[in-house]
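Deliverable D5.2: sample structural annotation.
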Amino acid sequence: MKAIIENVNIQAITSWLPKNVLEMSSLVSLFGERDVFNIIKATGVERARIADETMTSSDMCFNAALYLIEKEHLDLSKIDGLVFVSQTADYILPSTSNILQARLALNKSTICLDIRHGCSGYIYGIFQAALWINAGACNKVIVLAGDTSSKMINEKDRSLRMVFGDSGTATLVTKGNNNMGFSLNSDGLGYDKLIIPAGGFRLKRTTTTNNVKKDDNNNWRSLEDMYMDGAAIFDFAISNVSDDIDELIEYMDWRKGDIQLFALHQANKFMVNSIRKKMKVDIEKVPINSNNYGNTGPASIPLLLSDLLDENNFDLRKVILSGFGVGLSWGSVACNLTETKFYKPINK
């Protein structure tokens, strides 16, 4: 699906980080020095922020939203849409977006929606907000994107524990003078390549689904833990993301050479660089910050933007944002961010 949505703008982006820092080098006693440093070298992830036992994705996103409201001096009565993008909801039901509407004291007329996407979810969230605004249903929509990925991972699964981190973000989408181009894609045939098998209604939790077993690569997990076929996810991303971006650029009638910033989902340094090389784009146009935060799922793109752009070091007239992952799903947005305010991540 490709579409251009007119007269929308991303006004501001904030991010919130847990205080707990996991240094990957500290896992030597658990996984062994050789394996730990080989994984750090391969992924580029040196540390990640980890939420404590009581903190949820909605807590982090709530904090990011308060930060956004404070910085932008927002009138809460003027916010009429809220999108919550996360795989780690507070409950199976009700929707977490409704809970956040009440916590933020937004109007009861606020449209609320949960999007249960992961690493592509930010693109889907911005698309939904832009649709509401373009349709005349909303004027100001807050997109809250975040995951406590660490809580989905078995602590003895080195393949995932050394890659993922936690964060919550808030993005304000409003009416404006800019157009956004979107490309959204799905391939459900690969649903089992990144999955938590038990806990839904296809396979309910039982007395045996939490039994932890070791796989052929010495990673330990149960059916209630996240599983990722790393090779399959890498092949999927390399096969689809670059082409999707190229097709969107052509759809927008842009020239690739005019684009100074490609903000890709921060899966890890190796994957981002591999996609960049296939796109044939200069390294300085594709920033990476996963070394300090790991893969933060739907939060990774806004975290990247707020982390690196508070000083506006890039030409932001033509920007590509692109996310990819669980589903399988992937998507990109072409946008103008010259009017967007970026606020440095906080953890207070």
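Annotation notes: The radius of gyration is 19 Å. The chain is about 30% helix and 25% strand.
The annotation will be released with the project's public dataset once the embargo ends.
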